[in-house]
Write the structure tokens for this entry.
Amino acid sequence: ATKYFELDMEKNEEQWQQLKQVWWKKKPHLIVLGLSFICIFSFVIWLMQDDEKPSDSLLPAHPTQPTSHTTPAVKSFATPIKQTPAASLQNNMVAVKENETKKVSTEVQTETAKPVTKAPIVEKPKPVRKVEVKAKPIVKKKLVPVREKDILERVSYKMRRQYGGKVDVLKAHEFHGASHRYFEDLPVTKKKTFFTSFKKGGVRLYFYEAVHLKAIVIEQASVQGALFDGDRIKLEVQDEHFKWHTVLNLTKHDISKPMRIDEKSLPSSIKSVRIRLTSSSPMILGPIRLLE
């Protein structure tokens, strides 16, 4: 056991020597850092000690005490000079004048020292010029009435009066700018009686081909103030299928002002136009216009 213990002790010492050598070889920078830290710490302590010492410049200056050999200083007092009352008055007057001149000079200086403030320049507002907007005159366009064309100016036709035979279409007639007087042999009836007689008449216009009319205007179909009781004005049109359509039937009054029959009341195609009259007095018919 002792042998083994001694062997272990030797091994431990060898290991310890090896560790020392390794620590000193491998970590020399730790030693350098430790030494530098110690140097810095000592330098800081030295600086603090120098700061705590009072400087000579900050120490208060102590007055030197007089020694026993020094003699006290003798104070000299100014002796007042006696003046006469007249001289004192003159001196007072001079002092008052000097004070007044000083006051005046200070007042002048204060007056001159004051900055001169210029009054602000007020700009006068410029007069606003009123721009007169001249209204342009409104030019009214004259509406030119559209002249409706008479269909008889361009189509061929023929015309016949009842109990009167054919009508010359080359001359003016009731369908083309003229009027015709019907029942000329009847007296002007003002009052209806038992013996009042009525007559029938009329006119018919034939187109060779069916036409389309926008309106029929009857300018006049009047008994001119005579009795119209029992009288009749009847306007009929025939379509292309030869069927008659009544578009006007008056029994209460005659036509003294133009009367217009619009396109809505007319068939689309017209082959013939006729007017039937019943009257107890002479009647003027026309002109009648057929418009396209």
Residues 217 and 260 are 4 Å apart (CA to CA). The helical segments are 2-26, 28-52, 85-113.
